[in-house]
Amino acid sequence: MLDELYERSRSRTTDLAGALTSAQLDATVPATPLWSARELLAHLAGAASDAVAGRVDGVGSPPWTAAQVATRAGRPLDEVLAEWAGAGPQVAAALDARRMNALIVHDALTHEADLREAFGLGTPPADDVAAALDHLARGICRRSPQALVLRADGAEWSGGGGTPTVAETTPYELYRGLISRRSRAQMRAWTWSGDPGPFIEALPAFGPCAVDQPAP
Fold it and tell me: Quick check: is 88 in a domain?
């Protein structure tokens, strides 16, 4: 499943990239304020190539991702996308064989949504968002030291013991919040029972987003 999620997201993002204007490619992406859309795409290609080649020291860290962007600076977009097209199926095969960390799937889908939100291009398909959310939410709830229930469109995930704090919103908003693409104010706007404060700080994978994001 994760291999298919990755390849579908890669294909969609490649199509999106091909439809962006030069001005859009050079525009800053709100969810990645240090990167333009062009640089975000360089990261995606670089992450795939690094993962396939086993260059994973410091995986996910700012120096690791910055090197991917710097290495591809000045390259034509077609060349960058061709690199990703070459490495992507190898990433998918490794995911299928459970030889690669599933975080690369969330990285791809997250950045696809970053690009869509930046330029008003809707959201990834609901089924893919739901599948990625299920994978992410199960892991978060399993590790939660405090009682927690997450709900979205009839689905529910829970963890911890005792009286839970409950958070409910749409699948897309929950996924974006858990992957650190929603601000504290945006997460507080979800439907909560119990004190949301500690969870707003603890739930997002990299902490809450510093500023409100352009939600669809």
Answer: yes
How far apart, in Å, are the Cα atoms of 209 and each of 25, 98, 161? 22, 30, 28
Cβ(164)–Cβ(149) under 8 Å?
yes
Give CA–CA dist 132/105, Å, rounded: 8
pTM over 0.85: yes
Question: Tokens 């990239």 map to which residue?
Answer: 17
Enclosing domain of residue 157: 126-202
Q: Residue 160 maps to which CATH number?
A: 3.30.1050.20
pLDDT band, very low/low/confident/very high, at 162 (cuts 50, 70, 90): confident
What value, to the nearest 5°, has the Cα angle with vertex 175 and ends 14 and 187? 130
In the chain, the amino acid numbered 66 is: A
166-192: average pLDDT: 98
pLDDT tens digits for 27-36? 999 999 999 9
Residues 110 and 151 placed together within one structural domain of the fold: no
Assess if residue 8 is contained within a domain. yes
- Maximal CA-CA distance, the chain: 55
Q: Are residues 41 and 113 in the same domain?
A: yes
Which DSSP category does 164 fall into? P
